[in-house]
Every structure is written in C-alpha cells, then in structure tokens.
Amino acid sequence: MNTSLPLLLPIICLFALPCCRPPQQAYYASPVHGYANEYHPLPQVTDSAHTGYYAEAGFFTGNVNTNWHDNVKALHSSFTIAHHTGMLQVWGGGDLSLGSYHMGQWDTSDVRTYPVQTTVLFNPQLLNSYTGNHFFGALGLHGGANIVVPMNSGEWRVFGLEGSVNHDFGQYRTIRQKLPDTAASIIARGSMYGTLGFSSELIGSTKLGEFGFRGSLGWVLGDPYANTNVYDYKSGHYMSYSYVCLTTHYTREQYTLYGQLNFATKTAGISFGLAYRLNKPRNAPAQTSHRREALYKQ
Questions:
Q1: Taking Cα atoms as reference points, which of 188, 214, 190, 189 lies closest to residue 267?
Q2: 194: CATH
Q3: What is the total count of domains within the chain?
Q4: Is residue 66 in a domain?
Q5: Is the pTM of this model over 0.70?
Q6: What residues make up the domain containing 211?
Q7: Distance between start and end Cα atoms, the chain
Q8: In principle, which of 27, 96, 172, 293 could form an S-S bond with 134, CB 3.0–4.6 Å?
Q9: 236 pLDDT band (50/70/90 cuts)?
Q10: In this structure, which long-range contacts are made by residues 186-189, counting pairs with CB atoms below 8 Å and at least 24 apart in sequence?
Q11: Residue 176's Cα: distance from chain center in Å?
C-alpha cells in the first residue's frame, strides 16, 4: 500500500473538489466599526486641576471585509471633558468622522453551488456595480470611567469602562440601504453603531513628559452585530462583532500624541492623532508627592 496517499488526500481535495474551499462571503458594517473608540487623554489624579478640556484630531486607515477586501480611510476629530475626584476618573464628549469607504472588486468566476445547509447569500455581480470610493460621515458620543491607583512615577488606571454611539450618513450608508438581502451575508442598514468595552492603562511620568500604554476590549451592541446568526466559513465559527485596541501615547505639557492598533471582527487598521488640552495642568512638582500621599490615605 502506498503510504504517501493519505498525505496527498488533503491536497487533492483542495484542488480537485471546489466544495472543500470556503465560499465567498461579504459583510458590510458601519464605516466606524473598529475605530469608534479612539484614545482620549485624561488628567492624572495628582493634577490639582480636577477638570480637563481636550480637542483632538486624528487619522484612521484600515482594511475590512473578508480577506481585507475593502478599505476605509477617515479623518477623526473630538472634544472631551474629563474630571477626576479621589481615585475615580470620568470623561465624555462628542466625535465627528469624515472619510471614504472603498468597495473592492469581487470574483465573479466562482460558480460553485453548495448544499442547502451551507447556502451563502452573495451576489458578486451586484456588489461589483458599486466598486469604488464612497463618502461617509459619522457623528458620535463617547464616555467612560476609570478606577485609578496612584504610583510614585505615574498611575495605573486599573479598570476602565468605555462606551460609544455613532450615527453615520453619506453615500456608503445609502448603498447599504439599497442592497437586497441576497447581496451579502450581513448588511448593516441601520445608521446607529454602539459599543461597550473594558480597558486598563499604565501611565509613567518623567521629566520629559508622560508615557503610557492602554489596552481595551469590547463588543458591538444591537442588531445586526450582537445576534448575527451567520456562520463565517473563513474563520470557521458564527459571527460576533467585537474589538481590541492597543494604544501607546506620549504627553508633553498640553499636547498628547498617540498611535493605536485597531483589531475588530473583519477589520484591522491603525490610527494616530494629536490632542491638545485647552486648560493648563496644575500639578507642580512640589504638590505632586503631597497629593499622592493624600490619595493613598483615602
């Protein structure tokens, strides 16, 4: 018996049996999916100015959909009010995003058929009629809170709760509303997009400024994101929309520069931006150690 035959069977199946390859599937979600939770600087709990006001501008670019088929580019701006009292930080504000969603070209040569239990909603000819760049905009709100533990050279924002809600508009939303159910596996026709997540952040203070790293994990709320009931053949499991953000940032006086990696369901991208604190911090070195001691005693 030829012992090499069992080793060749997967290769034979891959090239000879079309049904062994996953079917094409398309997913059209909100254009802000994956980057709705941009980084927002906050005053440290040792800052004697309990409230901070921030204006921020940034840029996001990323690939979305199956096999990173589409691309999103967006300019993002926000205004945030942050406050701290004791070991609690809270913040909230508004957002505006303007960008372009590029719908790519799908393969129309795939004429495979599938059993009833694996039928996939997909119409490449119709989707290709919308190939190109499509404008979008989004207005949103963001907010959250942190439990903070002060440290000798900074602070640890041990546990954070964050949330956001966005309303998108423009050409890309109009296209999602026009597409029939048979065009793609998931089409988010609604304009509302909400998230809820958790975070943790470390801040270190030096003579050169503040350095920090933040990680967050969250989920997308509401239909069709929370209960898709759609099996994704590429990943091998039912779809559920979530996100992970990893952020590094540097603050010098009133300026904060940040870079953020954004990983979400069918989305991967990078964003970076600059925030400016409109009111000056008032944590003089002589006051800082005294305020840390007071916070530890609370």
A1: 188
A2: 2.40.128
A3: 1
A4: yes
A5: yes
A6: 17-297
A7: 78
A8: 172
A9: confident
A10: 186/27, 186/28, 186/29, 186/224, 186/228, 186/230, 186/239, 187/28, 187/224, 188/28, 188/29, 188/30, 188/224, 188/225
A11: 20
